[in-house]
Description:
Layout: E1 3-7, E2 10-13, E3 18-25, E4 32-39, E5 46-51, E6 58-60, E7 68-73, E8 78-83, E9 92-100, E10 112-113, E11 117-122
Amino acid sequence: QVQLVESGGGLVQAGGSLRLSCAASGRTFSNYAMAWFRQAPGKEREVVATINQYSDSTTYADSVKGRFTISRDNAKNTVYLQMNSLKPEDAAVYYCAARLGPGNYRDYTYPYWGQGTQVTVSS
Length: 123
């Protein structure tokens, strides 16, 4: 089992920045690809970014490319999402997720999930 706990969400003005963190425990963190997903009210959950086990491969949703950066620190068992130039449409509950094997955008392939952290962006 892998336990994931997100933090860092909050209220920010449009154009501002936030950094989300996801702390993992329970198993060897470096064995897991990690991803950030988000879900806004009335919308389906969507992938935001993925990162593989040793940070040599990252992917981003088109909507966040150039504004968000995913990173991880295997020594700290933590994955991050730096969010810059935030827009009102970025408002959602953000979840981190973990899976063995390569990262991908399919949420159903991730067996481990955090509880989510709310990001609110005011215009």
